[in-house]
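Hi, can you check this record?
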Amino acid sequence: MSIMTNLTFKTKMLSGYGFIFTLMDIVTCIVVVSVKAKQNNFIWVDHTHKVLDKA
C-alpha cells in the first residue's frame, strides 16, 4: 500500500509543492556556490595576467 493513498488532495498538493520548492532551493544554492567559485577563479586569472604582464 502506498503512503500517498491515505493523504487528502490538499496534503498531496502541498507536499508536491514543498518538494518542488526544496529542489529549487537546492539548485539555487548550487548555482550560487558555482558562481562564487567562478568569480574567485576569474580574480586569480586576472591577477596572473597582471603578474605576467609585468614580467
User: Anything to note?
Assistant: The chain has a mean pLDDT of 93. The CA atoms of residues 19 and 45 lie 39 Å apart. The chain has one helix and no strands. The two ends are 72 Å apart (CA to CA).
